[in-house]
Amino acid sequence: MGFRDGFLFCDGWHPFCSARRGMGPRWRLVLVDDHAPTRAAVAEAVAAAGGALVGVGTSGGEAVALVECHRPDAVVLAVGLSDGDGLHAARELMARVPCPIVLLTGRTDPAVIQRARAAGVMAFLVKPLRPAELGPAIELAVARYREFEVVARENEDLKKAIESRKLVERAKGLLMERQGLTEAEAFRRIRKTAMDSRRPMAEVARALLLIEGLASQR
């Protein structure tokens, strides 16, 4: 870790920087802003708060590459960038390499806030930067992103559970129709097959339905 061109950088290999606990930096951040004075102000505020910049860019095109390379704890992203709209870059980040995003903006009108939230921005910093606000904004973004991850996992688990239930229900109906089983008997048949083969019931149900589909095509 060291200063280059006025910024505090962490290359990811220095023992101080690689230790994420104990003596490590408070956060590892990527900064994307095309305004040199603002970059310098953010870098100074990050260092004063105990963090480290692991990458700095000036365009939205660099944002995804920097995050993919460094896997930071959060990204500080300006709304206006040299190649266009920072909110477009935020959408790209959330689609390709999701992470906590703090938007650095001089505009706080409702339209910008609404677009930022839709793009996945978790917190805001208003220009001119007040250093005391950086730490709370980063912490808020990280906390909100963790909540987002929990909800996303729960939704994915729920989606999978619903899909699995539908498969089992269809397979039960098939066994009841083809073999004259009761609903309880069909369920026990699927469950026993799953236990014997050490496979999820949904996989057994899917296999039964696939076999039936192939048979019906003959």
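the 2nd protein, sequnce then structure:
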Amino acid sequence: MAATVTVNDLLDGHVGLDIECLDRIYLNGYVPNLQVGGQVVSFLTAHLGNPIPSPVILEKIGTTFRRAVASFAEDNRIPVVRFGKAERKIDRMRPYLARQAATGQPGVAAIGVAQEFAPVYAAAKKQRGKTVWFSFSISQRRVTCYYFYLWDDDFGPAFVKICTYFPYPMKIWINGHEWAKRQAINAGIGFSELSNGFATATDPAALQTICDRLGPGPIRVFAERWWSILPLPLTEHDRAAGYWWELSMRQVETSRTLVFDAPRHARGFFEALVADNLDIGRPELIELIFKRGQRRGAKAGGQYKTKIITYGTEVNVNAFYRHSRIKQYLKDGRALRIETVINDPEDLRCRRRPPSPRVAGGPRPYGSATLGSKPWPARYATACSPSPASPTRACAP
């Protein structure tokens, strides 16, 4: 009787490097105690000492911030770039990032200016006799946002986006592979690069250990470092009173990259994988990946489907689960990349906020759901074991 050929049998002897790492990390920055209208009133009156919570005060803060950004750019000779409506921002900024990287020093490569929709406060004036008061509510408005494109010692290319309107929502974008490359150089580990990844490494085990170290600690250090450098709409006086940004996960990508010894092996394995997983996005099968199957007879919530996308001769296989998805494709023609894109941590019963320093080393206050970035198993194979680069690891490394 012929033995069943497993995925591991196919990979054995043909994979030169197998590495798991957090990839793109996109974070929200928000002020927890400025989330409802009453908190805005307290900020303007009890904190700033104004008798009336007038929106004029917020306009003055925004104007001061915009002037501070202009002065910061002029004093440091930083280019200011205005983005077009449909322009791809990273393509426009790539030459500026390369120029900053060539200096060998961290710094702000350029400041981008864009008009975008953001959740900001709108004020409503009310009057009864001679008594005037204001109420505040969140609405989506098209406002000015600044993109500070950075070159960082630890993370390389990154950006911090700050909205110029109250409560000044923020976004931070960093890349886990770029962080791992710099840590590998510091540790004396030789490697060659894929586009956004590793092709070879002189010490794969040590490189994997570095990738596993990326968590809330280095990310928080990155944020604090640049908050101390960039002009911000909130002041140290505000921070002392508890008005400061907290970070939460907006989108996190985990990845596993298998680099084959020959491109033909990579393509052959990928083609077999595609054929065997065309229906992996169905609710009753996606549990093999997410380990959170639908209850029998329950209506499937969210999005469950498989989608094949072609770019010329390149093929991407996507399996969707609720708001998240797994993507498989060939990278640079020689490596299989499996990316898990988590758009909503609640899909995995995982909290959005990274742990605070006081709990980072203690028990994980997070859900047990895991999603390994392993190659999708055939339907007759056993489920893959959790990956060190799983969403649970992203939530609480």
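The first strand starts at residue 15 and ends at 30. The radius of gyration is 24 Å.
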